[in-house]
Write a structure and sequence with these properties.
Layout: E1 9-12, H1 23-30, E2 34-36, E3 50-54, E4 66-69, H2 70-77
Parallel strand pairs: 1-3, 1-4, 2-3
Helix pairs in contact: 1-2
């Protein structure tokens, strides 16, 4: 039996919304063990097992993984609206 490696997920939201503060909780909820913060369109992205955080506005990048807003990601953690 082989283990399935989770695909990366890109989470976008405005600067200061809490992406970095809540990165560990989001990564845990998504089953991801790596975090890449402050990604900008055009930079390379890891395709596996990485939470990719960005404040870039347009979510239609050529990203080969799941894309969601910060609010959607926080709903997965059960902490919507909770910021440290």
């Amino acid at each position: 039996m082989t283990a399935i490696t989770p695909r990366s997920c890109l989470v976008h939201g405005p600067m200061g919304c809490g992406k970095t503060t809540n990165a560990q909780a989001i990564a845990k909820a998504l089953g991801l063990s790596n975090i890449l913060d402050n990604w900008t369109p055009g930079k390379a992205t890891p395709l596996l097992n990485t939470l990719v955080l960005t404040s870039a506005y347009e979510p239609s990048w050529p990203f080969k993984g799941r894309v969601m807003t910060f609010d959607q990601a926080m709903q997965l953690t059960g902490q919507l609206g909770v910021q440290a």
